[in-house]
TrEMBL record:
Protein name (database record): 70 kDa peptidyl-prolyl isomerase
Taxonomic superkingdom: Eukaryota
Family matches, as Pfam families: TPR_9
UniProt keyword annotations, A-Z: Isomerase, Repeat, TPR repeat
Molecular function per GO: isomerase activity
Lineage, broadest ranks: Eukaryota, Sar, Alveolata, Apicomplexa, Conoidasida
Keyword Isomerase attributed: yes
UniProt keyword Coiled coil, yes or no: no
Amino acid sequence: MERQQQIAESLRSKTWNEKLQWGLDTKNLGNSLYQQKKFTEAINAYQDCLLALDLGSTADQQEAAQRQLQIPAVLNLAACMLATKKYHRCKALCNVVLDLEPQSLKAIFRRALANFHLGELEEATQDLQRAYAMCGGRRPCETDEEFSATQQNLKEKLTTKSHSLLSTNSEKEQPTGVFCNAEDREKFLRKVNYYLHAISQQQTRYAKACQNMFSEGCLESSGGSGTQACKTGKLQLERLPNQVSSMFPLTLFKCSKCSFCARRAEKVE
């Protein structure tokens, strides 16, 4: 905190251009630290560079400060939070970016990954499907066969290095969040397909686990004694934490959101 106060004090006498340049230099330092996997130091650098954020007195200055400094620095902070498994903070940072730039592909995808690791599968799916559509994907995979075929197809496109789909500007992404480079686009679609497929498989496991928990034998037990089947064969409620820990990479068991539990809840009501 004292260090940041000293930085803020030193920036106070600088002009708008000087502040922006100092912020960009510090952001670039953060990028270098991130590439070296020095995430704590990178986080400090990105936080420092935001101290230089000055929206200026004109619309042009505000746009330049946000586009060149604020949005990239916050996105990079979100990437650091993913790398250090601080998923709630990653989500919050992505939301800040999306308030400023609703079509930011990086923010949408990183928020999806944070939700994925938090077990918020519905939210993750929505963002992944949105990212897939933004990149011109026809339809995300729904079955194992579709997933294998699509991944192989994308792999063949990468091998041929066809760049006819999109222009080949030097920038990785346009402001709208669409990749200019076709090879980068295909790699990104493979990532999105991977996570959508993983979510589909996880939801299937959730439903099966819920069916075991709420099997007729368990539901008919009374006084906490349970049936022999519940004691020996089926997944029991008190054993749930142990089951959850094995469901890599998710840490939360959201059985209340699966279709089986939803249908059962409707019947009870």
